[in-house]
Design goal:
By secondary structure, this protein is α/β, with parallel strands linked by helices. The protein folds into two domains: 2-76, Arc Repressor Mutant, subunit A, CATH 1.10.10; 83-192, 3-Layer(aba) Sandwich (Rossmann fold). The protein has eight helices and eleven strands. Helix 1 (7-25) runs antiparallel to helix 4 (66-76).
């Protein structure tokens, strides 16, 4: 089924899940596509169309039961479990990611941190001890880690990605400002703040 659903639709599901979780935390029990659309700036028709790819989650005139829809979206996104994540890069960005508390309640847990700098290996960051890069393959394989984040300089990113993929990682969140060459069965998402800033400045007058 996932191969027949546009990736742009999949990309909106976490946004819906975040909005629904906020509604639940505010004490709401039921919502509508109109209310979600108002909060997110997305048309109610688009929301209904997106959700229809995965079945009927609400009834016309009564809306969506929030806790039920949250549960269903978590199952669709496979975050109804905890995913262990490998983090490569123990610099300023990697350290910030290691300290970030927003992963654990949304289905992810950083399990290990790697770096190849002698100044960083063995250093304590949050609750982690930074491991040398030559331990990456064994650790990732031993813990069956499928997801990784890359927070290294651009010139090292491809080398790191190759190591991760060889060890069995199939999903990479890449903070390095470069595109990675990966096999077709590996998913990569890119986070480059400068690219997003440059996209916005186009619209400034």
């Amino acid at each position: 089924m996932s191969h027949n659903i546009p990736d742009i639709v999949i990309g909106r599901l976490p946004i819906y899940l975040r909005a629904l979780t906020r509604l639940m935390n505010e004490g709401h029990e039921v919502t509508s596509s109109h209310e979600l659309g108002r909060r997110l700036g997305i048309s109610s028709a688009q929301i209904r169309k997106d959700l229809s790819h995965f079945g009927g989650f609400g009834k016309q005139g009564t809306g969506y039961q929030i806790t039920y829809l949250i549960d269903q979206l978590r199952q669709v996104l496979k975050v109804n479990r905890e995913w262990e994540v490998a983090l490569v890069g123990a610099g300023d960005l990697g350290s910030a990611l290691a300290h970030y508390r927003g992963f654990s309640d949304r289905g992810f847990r950083i399990a290990c941190i790697f770096d190849n700098s002698p100044q960083k290996v063995g250093k304590q960051i949050s609750t982690f001890t930074v491991q040398p890069l030559n331990e990456l393959s064994n650790t990732v394989e031993e813990h069956n880690i499928r997801i990784a984040m890359i927070a290294v300089p651009a010139e090292k990113a491809q080398e790191v990605a190759d190591l991760l993929i060889q060890a069995g990682v199939r999903a990479i969140l890449n903070y390095a400002p470069m595109n990675l060459n990966v096999p077709p069965d590996v998913r990569v998402q890119y986070i480059d703040p400068v690219v997003q800033l440059q996209r916005m400045t186009f619209y400034l007058t």
